[in-house]
Design a protein that fits this description.
Strand content of chain A: 5-15%
Number of strands of chain A: 4
Largest interface: A-C, 100 and 95 residues
Number of strands of chain C: 2
Shape of chain A: globular
Number of helices of chain C: 13
Helix content of chain A: 55-70%
Oligomer: heterotrimer
Radius of gyration of chain A: 29 Å
Strand order of the largest sheet of chain C: 1-2
Structural class of chain A: mainly alpha
Strand order of the largest sheet of chain A: 1-2
Order of helices and strands of chain C: HHHHHHHHHHHHEEH
Radius of gyration of chain C: 23 Å
Largest sheet of chain C: 2 strands, antiparallel
Distance between the termini of chain C: 21 Å
Largest sheet of chain A: 2 strands, antiparallel
Order of helices and strands of chain A: EEHEEHHHHHHHHHHH
Chains: A mainly alpha (323), B alpha+beta (366), C mainly alpha (268)
Structural class of chain C: mainly alpha
Helix content of chain C: over 70%
Shape of chain C: globular
Chain lengths: 323, 366, 268
Amino acid sequence: MSEKTAVAGSVVAGDIVTDDLPAEQPAEPWAGEPADDVKPRNNRAWLLVLPVVVSVAFTAVIPLMTVVNYSVQDVFSPVDRIFVGLEWFRSVSRDPEVRAAFLRTLMFSLQVLLLEIPLGVLIAVCMPRRGRLVPVALVVVALPLLIPWNVVGTMWQIFARADIGLAGWVINNGLGIDFNYTLDSTDAWITVLLMDIWHWTPLVALLAYAGLRAIPGPYFQAAQIDGASAWQVFRHIQLPRLRGVLTIAILLRFMDSFMIYTEPFVVTGGGPGNATSFLSILLSKVAVGQFDLGPAGAFSLLYFLFVQIVSFVFFTVLTRTGR
Amino acid sequence: MADIRFEGVGHSYDGGRTWALRPMTWTWRHAKAYALLGPSGCGKTTLLNIISGLLTPTVGRVWFGDRDVTEVPTAGRNIAQVFQFPVLYESMSVYNNLAFPLRNRRYPKQEIDARVRKVSRLLGLDGHLDRRSRRLDPGRQQIVSLGRGLVRADVAAVLLDEPLTVIDPALKWTLRSKLKEIHRETGHTLIYVTHDQTEALTFADEVVVLNDGDVVQAGRPTELFLAPEHEFVGHFIGSPGMNMVPAEIVGGVVRVGAAAAGRAVGTGGELADGPVRIGVRPEFVQMSAQPVTPGLPGRITGVDRMGAYHLVRAEVDGHPFVAKVDRATAAARDVEHFRFAADRAFLFRDAVRCGALAPLGEEAQP
Amino acid sequence: MARLPWARAVFWLYAVTLTLPILWMIGMSVRPNEDILGSFSLLPQRVTLDNYRTFFTDEAWYSSYLNSVTYTSMNAVMSLVVAIPAAYAFSRFRFAGDKHLFFWLLTNRMAPPAVFLLPFFQIYQSVGLFDTHLGVALAHMLFNVPLAVWILEGFMSGIPREIDETAAIDGYSLPRFFVRIFLPMIRSGIGVTLFFCFMFSWVELLIARTITSVDAKPIAATMTRTVSAAGIDWGLLAAAGVLTIIPGAIVIWFVRNYIAKGFALGRV
């Protein structure tokens, strides 16, 4: 398309020529992500993937098969074993101790989610987003995540004691409340819960922070221009954008808290009694402590399947509501 | 609605070492449509953000009418801004998106409804008011973004920062003409930032060309095309850009190599001898059998056939040179003479226009 | 981006409470045991480096520390070596079962380690990997390899395929292209992967403790067995705790700017 310029007083045939414009849609979608059908098909790529497959087979598949093997047999000795079908599964799922541990762990995970997700989002919103303090803030927030889990346990073991720990001493002597996690079940539960919050909220906070930072500046600028309040900015701009990130956070936190072992083990050993005996702790007692291979195998498999199925369900539900 | 005035406004992001926008004094007259044109990094987004209040200039004062708004934050400035990509409240419907700025300012409900529907009609969004804004295509989303800026009564200016970047070409035309239509209907001041000269030239009443933080030239689109005051304008505007040929003024005659191109006529009096550059747009170069002034001889290196016209590529004194001619006059001779149209060949010294090229042996034209 | 005025206060309050348990443990590590058990005090009455001295002179302690460092490093390198070709395959090609394989890899992250205790114990004993650094390094690949593949694939997909094609046209063989061109381009991705593999292996206790006994005993196991007739040696325990935090803290301090930049780009 071209426009002729007619300029008064001068007879000039000048053309302002514009670019040739195709009438049809452009080839690339404007929100471009590399389309899958752009990747060439090459089955020899399996060679590249082979080392991973082998390592995973060795570390995961074979052990799992062993577990399955044990779960359907009664093993008296390495050479003397009989097939018992689903017997162990039945007895394990009926075992009151297993059921109690299951409910306990479920309760724990739910409480963890209810507390850590909002707290993590709050921290993420409060973290500095610009300036020299950003790397410092990141390091401080990330610190609990870098501590070996047993040391987290040790730290809280010390911290919550009335005689040598700051928190324990302050609660008992400063606030006058009787607090002893080795004797009182509730105190033990609270200690373990607080420890998990201390340990893992940073993960939620960092994920949420990454999600918040990914929001382009113009959204906030537009909100300023529109006269939106801080709460409206949170509700209409930040929260919707956090959905994807929070899905990951909820999934990870539920799964990891359901599989928790080291930290409570170090602090309370599962006690007092079995107040803090979560599923992993019970399982390791049965498997490596007592060496009941059959029940241990069945227990392991049920545990494993439960975690896998719930992850899958969670993931599907959370990503589908996002649509 | 009032004029927006810049008094010595400049901005530096690094404490004065380099200036993203050099101090400038300028008035944006109300109800006009401006285009800010320039390459990436020339300072146009900085300038826009100073107007909108997202940036406080390092030096200078900004006036909206007779109100000094230099320190006033964005929310108090009554401007609307459209960004390079649609900026929406994605969880809200189109209606609520448009109503949002009004609700925040506590307009009465009926007025909100009236305004939203008026803008919606203007922008062709009537059928989409109840749809979730997330579900619209990018073109329409950008229209909604624009709409949010137009609903308010007290908009001093609408600022658009390369708003058609993510729109596919077919829709760009529609949107561009829609913007002109809106400008006519609403009478808001429009300031449109772009690096695409076509957009700028077809949209604006006045084009402000920026380069490296400086306003290089400002004027009507035709002025910029026909009478560039700066080499940058000559080169940046026009497709292809202006031809530049190094030359020398000797005794009032402009010479390129052995050839005499014409007589030097200074804009502000006599031009001193010395190096200059001749600038002439390909549109104003014609082929000629005999040497003629103002003009130059050249050696043709190729001809690009572009359908309605031809681009004759040549070398003048070793420098690339292009002429845009229609089919009838294109020929395939080796050496050609190029004739420059009267008043369309200029002389530039230090990148600034200092004069024009006149035919030898004739009186100068003012 | 506007922030509420009290946001900063909330954040730094959180930061302080976050560091309290750590600071407390550091304080405890420089106190002699008599002081710790004697009377409670906020700041150390006497400062001593005895606990650290014991740590570095007692073979049981420092050798287990070295064990942990050894198998963690081995695991990081092994996971990386195995994951790189696989990540490249996922990023560049489609092949039969690729999506299923990728998903299956990720599900390994979601497996309770407790489930693997028993089989690991038996299998590693039977193949002679029990109580070896290599054994733990291999076992930790269970969760580190999927993670490494996932991270690396993300970074590799960020490199346009045109680069591969150009290199092929220029006559580079695949290994040479990898070493000279591709890997340097994703070195930040490799850094991130190494960091996370190191971290997850360093902090893991259950598996590492199950398949080791003496020779490759991790520091974590040594720490959970400091109960003696005289009671728990808190000072030494605290010192050991501090020392195990240091590697992670050092690494993240060095990469903090890169991580901050990663957040700024919106890609973590």
